[in-house]
Amino acid sequence: MRSIIIIVGVLFFASCNTIRVNYDYDKNTDFTNYSTYNYYPDMDTGLSPLDAKRLLDAVNAEMQLKGIRFSEDPDFFINIESNSFQAPRSNTVGVGLGGSGRSVGGGVSVGIPVGQPKLEREIRFDFVDAKKDELFWQGQGFSNFKENVSPETREEKLHALAAKVFSKYPPKQ
């Protein structure tokens, strides 16, 4: 019984930290042409300088795992942008009233928001062909985040987000 409670607890907390991913790409792209990358020099990630460094380290690690090298003369550039917003509350408690009399029915129901509003972060990665200056792949990661967490937790979350987004690159055509 105790192990069931632990498993349910782990699943509950894991579901709260879900990373959602969207991606899109130009279907005419030959992804084998892209073996080197760099970042746009004037890139503004929208993250704090420390979080930006953590994210770039995560991206570099993912690119290295895929055999794509960092280069001063790259095949493509990576642009990263982020946005933080307050996610709508999805937890509510319903309070209802109802009554009937002589075949007449009626009712009122009210949803009351429960819990703290959650901050959500979107990080978008654009891959742009260096010669044609054309977007050929785009990935977006969405996750909940808290601003007042340890540097280790921030690094773990950014690495997890980068790993999940880049698991979709190159796309299976």
Describe the structure in your own words.
The protein has helices at 2-16, 49-65, 151-166, and strands at residues 20-25, 36-39, 69-70, 76-87, 92-101, 104-113, 118-129, 135-144. The protein is α/β, with parallel strands linked by helices and 173 residues long. The chain has 3 helices and 8 strands; from the N terminus they run αββαββββββα. The relative contact order is 0.22. The strands form 2 sheets. A 6-stranded mixed beta sheet has the order 1-8-7-4-2-3, covered by helices on one side. It has a two-stranded antiparallel sheet with strand order 5-6. The protein has a domain at 19-27 and 36-85 and 121-173: Double Stranded RNA Binding Domain. Residues 21-171 form the DUF4136 domain. This is DUF4136 domain-containing protein.
Quick recap of the structure?
This protein is of the alpha/beta class. Helices cover 28% and strands 38% of the residues.
